[in-house]
Design a protein that fits this description.
592 residues; 15 strands; 8-stranded parallel β-sheet; TIM Barrel; 5-stranded parallel β-sheet; Rossmann fold
Length: 592
């Protein structure tokens, strides 16, 4: 748009009302809200145009973060602590600044922690235990800090998350006992973060952004109360609470989620009488966003998620390995994504890069408001522990996921490399495991990958699931729809034959081509003009040739009844339930 287009004919600056009038003229009576206004899964409207508005109040800048970047925190699962130690040192030597440790086979002890962290200087490289509720494990890390002489200098995280234990094993742990222990070491270990508020399990199970924020605040407040009851001041209690939140490939929403979370928690602390208190935020790339198919795309998802976490102000960021492994390549990729964002892009050098964006500011403010209401509802219901134990949280997460499935099935929400532009090569990497019971990891890619897996099993058994494209007319007439259908069927792992040259010139030729392939399923592809001339006769010919299932590529409009009378079994076009359509094809082809 040139500068003169920003003004009306009377040389006055154009207003939002002028723009809306112009858009209404183009829409010609169509609904502005239906055509141009989107919505997040949490019900927040996404307008097509935003004007500059009042910024959300900035939190104080961390000079260290601005100068050196956020904490690059690498995740390690330590089923074998000794093997883990070598990988930890390799990461630290190549620029990782802290370590998050998953539990070993049993539980952390002083001995196993010592083995896993052999050679690590804990005053320089903090260690965070992944969220848990094992007091003995927390005590073991404290003992290790004491033994190393780092009690007063280490910024390690004990990882105690007794309320979040419900999402991991189905029961809330001893909140008062965890708080009492953290309070007992607060003076002797002044920089240690004792309690973790982890919301990643809710997000990975399907919770939307409003739920995550409301439940984060409710859990944080419950933890804060327990620490104060154990004898800490609000300010000291806040310093020993760390938040572990999810970051995903929805860039702008993730930025708004982090900004809203930090701002909302600051409001809680201010209302509690500690306006200068600060709690650290640790952002972790969501395991649920990863795909097993075309796993290289996971690198792009991780980069976007890490970028959004940095822009949103996270104090520490963990990028999970793109292929679900603990290989040197996966770990190198995870840390280098962050090095590029910090050292090459300098994202950390701006205190709030999203400030001034009308869209992000508006989204942050509306998320703050909606999240605060969700928080109040939890408080009114008796607090986070109560709503977890009542099953309300699990029900809400499941409902959110089932609502999302509709958008995934119709590809309104695409999964690149899986539901759109599928990679037809071999797959299956073991990404994003874990998460059972009421809070499993629900990956958007999984329903489509299940179809691909079934098709692969069929091929392994010697049966190639083949669909014949009954193309009609010249290549130029059918290529748009045959290309679209080929990609659609590839989403379900089906082999497509035909459609790569000029199509049949008559229904008889179409039937002969079909018989030659040995297929049982056919999809007719061509232009609307060719359909008007030959579609009905072609469908009849294909059925007579033995086709057990015939579909038409495209929306039939007012010709639906005639085509169905001729024997058409389905119409494949934009907006259909792709999962249902492909599952039906799998059943017709006898795939398990």
């Amino acid at each position: 748009m040139t500068s003169d287009q920003l003004f009306r004919l009377d040389d006055q600056p154009a207003t939002a009302a002028d723009w809306r009038n112009a858009v209404d003229g183009v829409l010609k009576g169509a609904s502005f809200e239906k055509v141009l206004v989107g919505q997040t899964r949490g019900g927040l409207d996404i307008e097509p145009l935003y004007e500059p508005g009042p910024a959300v109040a900035l939190l104080p800048a961390d000079p260290h973060r601005v100068a050196y970047g956020w904490d690059i925190r690498q995740r390690h699962d330590a089923s074998d602590p000794t093997v883990c130690a070598a990988k930890v040192l390799d990461d630290l030597e190549h620029g990782v600044t802290s370590i998050e440790l998953g539990p070993p086979t049993d539980s952390w002890t002083l001995a196993t922690l010592g083995d896993a962290l052999e050679g690590v200087f804990l005053d320089i490289a903090p260690v965070a235990l992944a969220p848990h509720a094992d007091l003995e494990a927390a005590k073991a890390l404290v003992a290790l800090l004491d033994e190393a002489g780092n009690a007063t200098t280490s910024r390690s995280w004990l990882g105690l998350d007794p309320i979040g234990a419900f999402a991991r094993n189905g029961s809330v742990a001893d909140v008062a006992g965890c708080a009492a222990f953290v309070a007992s070491i607060a003076e002797s270990h002044p920089k240690v973060v004792g309690c973790t508020v982890d919301t990643t399990r809710y997000v990975d199970a399907g919770a939307h952004e409003v739920q995550e924020l409301g439940w984060m605040l409710a859990t944080g407040v419950a933890t804060l109360r327990a620490l104060v009851d154990a004898g800490l001041t609000v300010e000291r209690a806040a310093a020993t609470i760390g938040f572990r939140v999810a970051t995903d490939a929805d860039q702008f929403l993730t930025i708004a989620r982090l900004r809203a979370a930090r701002t909302a928690w600051s409001a809680v602390l201010t209302a509690s009488g500690a306006p200068d208190a600060v709690s650290p935020f640790h952002a972790v790339t969501a395991a649920s966003m990863f795909s097993q198919r075309d796993p290289a795309v996971n690198m792009l998802r991780s980069t976007t998620a890490a970028f959004a976490a940095g822009v949103g102000g996270a104090d520490a960021v963990t990028v999970l390995p793109y292929d679900g492994s603990d290989s040197a390549l996966a770990r190198r990729n995870a840390r280098n994504i962050q090095h590029l964002l910090i050292d090459e892009c300098g994202i950390n050098r701006l205190v709030d890069p999203a400030a001034g964006s009308g869209f992000v500011e508006s989204l942050t403010q509306r998320l703050l408001e909606a999240g605060w209401i969700a928080f109040q509802e939890v408080e009114a219901a008796g607090g986070m522990a109560s709503v977890l134990e009542s099953g309300a949280v699990a029900d809400a997460v499941k409902a959110s996921w089932e609502s999302r499935l509709g958008g995934l099935a119709t590809r309104r929400e695409p999964v690149t490399g899986v539901s759109e532009f599928p990679d037809t090569g071999p797959a299956a990497l073991a990404v994003s495991g874990g998460g059972q019971g009421a809070f499993p990891v629900r990956r958007p890619a999984a329903p489509f990958e299940a179809l691909r897996d079934a098709a692969d099993r069929s091929r392994s058994a010697g049966v190639d699931p083949t669909v014949h494209l009954a193309a009609l007319g010249a290549l130029a007439e059918h290529t748009a729809r045959s290309t679209w259908i080929t990609n659609l069927l590839a989403v379900g792992g089906l082999t497509v034959v035909g459609g790569d040259g000029d199509g049949a010139a008559s229904p008889i030729e179409a039937a002969a081509r079909f018989e030659a392939t040995g297929a049982s399923v056919a999809v007719v592809c061509s232009s609307d003009a060719v359909y008007a001339e030959r579609a009905t006769a072609t469908v009849t010919a294909l059925k007579d040739a033995g086709a057990t299932f015939v579909a038409i590529a495209g929306n039939p409009g007012d010709r639906r009844a005639d085509l169905e009378s001729a024997g058409v079994d389905a119409f494949l076009h934009i907006g259909i339930d792709v999962l249902s359509a492909l599952a039906d094809l799998h059943e017709r082809l006898g795939l398990g």
